[in-house]
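Customer escalation, tier 2.

The customer says the design service returned an amino acid string that "doesn't look like it belongs to this structure." They asked us to rerun it and document both sides in this ticket. The original structure tokens are below, unchanged.
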């Protein structure tokens, strides 16, 4: 029987809470493969507008050693939503971590972005290697990354941008935070080899501007977000956005695309004809993408088959709010959250059993309404490798912390 069940699960804060901790986005996991180490950003502040000078320490908790925290580096290239895109490189036989940083070396004009780079940290040797581009999405095998311009985000969608300093003069350094070039043909999505650092532009923004062009694109600024590579590493999903009023998300228009990781076989899955939400896509498997958005006049979680374009509504009548969703490894459960209730300011954490259509509310968390939207703390829930635990970021206890939720009685 389908329905909605209140089922709070055991929860505990990770760490001692002396400093603020958070991981970031929903589309990657803080867990290592064995479920022992948990990546985190560590900062002295809970919230404030960022000017690009604030330092975040990056590292990981050891859940088997009383949540001790090991610092592996620091960065000033971060924001409250995504952090510094901290994530594991899952190369067989190695344990490495990658995260975004601000360029600190000599002037390098042949790199696309003046300000931003990425660091690779080797857990065994503790050696650090710099890469020429900041990363967004990393392939499941750790071989390559997809890269974009975080200064363009700062101008279009402040919550996910990095404030540029323009200390250097790379060929994209002319980007301004107020008026970026609308749809350049020399910037967009880059593919970078993790080992060599070689990079190439695989999807220029001008190509998206020209693809089934609409008149609403003429005077708009364009960008891409929500990039995620499929489990088999062959294709990636992303959202193409454009607006004439940068910074005002109520006027954003959206299209959902998939593409081969070399930039070929661009495929349009969905397009909004008016400003309405289309966000937070994620892969269910190698060929299926779920997203919150409109299709045929209805707003639901929709599951798209990337091979034939067929669409299925998921949880209609039960999952009725936008959130950040992911699947268990066996595809039996969907984990998601909600944005704050306008009356109570509570966010809900939900587990949806696909076979029965039953939705369990496993937690509810207060979010201070005085925290500005671009500095907010979404729950961004993420499964552990064995699907028995969930981690979230939350501010319900008055500081920004990561929490561990035990869902093993439901997921087995």
């Amino acid at each position: 029987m389908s329905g909605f069940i209140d089922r709070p699960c055991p929860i505990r804060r990770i760490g001692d809470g002396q400093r603020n901790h958070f991981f970031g986005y929903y589309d990657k996991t803080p867990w290592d493969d064995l479920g022992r180490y948990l990546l985190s950003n560590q900062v002295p502040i809970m919230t404030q507008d960022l000017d690009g000078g604030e330092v975040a320490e990056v590292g990981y908790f050891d859940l088997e050693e009383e949540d001790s925290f090991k610092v592996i580096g620091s960065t000033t290239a971060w924001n409250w939503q995504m952090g510094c895109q901290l994530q594991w490189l899952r190369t067989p036989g190695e344990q490495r971590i990658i995260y975004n940083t601000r360029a600190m070396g000599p002037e390098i004009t042949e790199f696309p972005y003046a300000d931003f780079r990425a660091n690779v940290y080797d857990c065994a040797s503790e050696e650090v290697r710099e890469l020429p581009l900041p990363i967004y999405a990393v392939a499941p095998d750790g071989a390559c990354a997809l890269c974009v311009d975080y200064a363009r985000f700062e101008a279009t969608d402040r919550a996910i941008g990095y404030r540029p300093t323009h200390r250097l003069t790379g060929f994209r350094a002319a980007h301004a935070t107020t008026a970026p070039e609308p749809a350049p043909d020399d910037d967009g999505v880059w593919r970078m080899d993790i080992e060599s650092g070689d990079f190439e532009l695989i999807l220029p923004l001008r190509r998206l501007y020209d693809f089934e062009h609409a008149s609403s694109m003429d005077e708009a600024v364009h960008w891409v977000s929500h990039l995620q590579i499929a489990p088999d590493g062959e294709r990636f999903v992303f959202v193409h956005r454009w607006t004439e009023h940068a910074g005002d998300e109520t006027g954003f228009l959206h299209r959902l695309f998939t593409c081969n990781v070399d930039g070929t076989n661009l495929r349009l899955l969905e397009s909004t004809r008016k400003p309405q939400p289309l966000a937070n896509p994620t892969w269910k498997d190698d060929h299926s993408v779920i997203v919150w958005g409109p299709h045929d006049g209805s707003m639901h979680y929709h599951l798209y088959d990337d091979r034939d374009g067929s669409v299925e509504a998921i949880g209609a009548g039960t999952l009725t709010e936008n959130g950040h969703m992911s699947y268990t490894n066996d595809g039996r459960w969907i984990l998601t959250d909600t944005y704050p209730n306008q009356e109570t300011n509570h966010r809900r954490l939900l587990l949806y059993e696909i076979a029965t259509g039953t939705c369990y509310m496993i937690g509810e968390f207060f979010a201070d309404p005085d925290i500005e939207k671009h500095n907010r703390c979404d729950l961004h829930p993420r499964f552990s490798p064995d699907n028995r635990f969930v981690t979230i970021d939350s501010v319900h206890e008055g500081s920004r912390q990561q929490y561990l939720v035990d869902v093993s009685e439901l997921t087995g």
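Tier 2 assessment: The sequence is consistent with the input. Confidence is low (pLDDT under 50) at residues 167-178. DSSP finds three helices and 29 strands in the chain. Sent an explanation to the customer and offered a walkthrough call.
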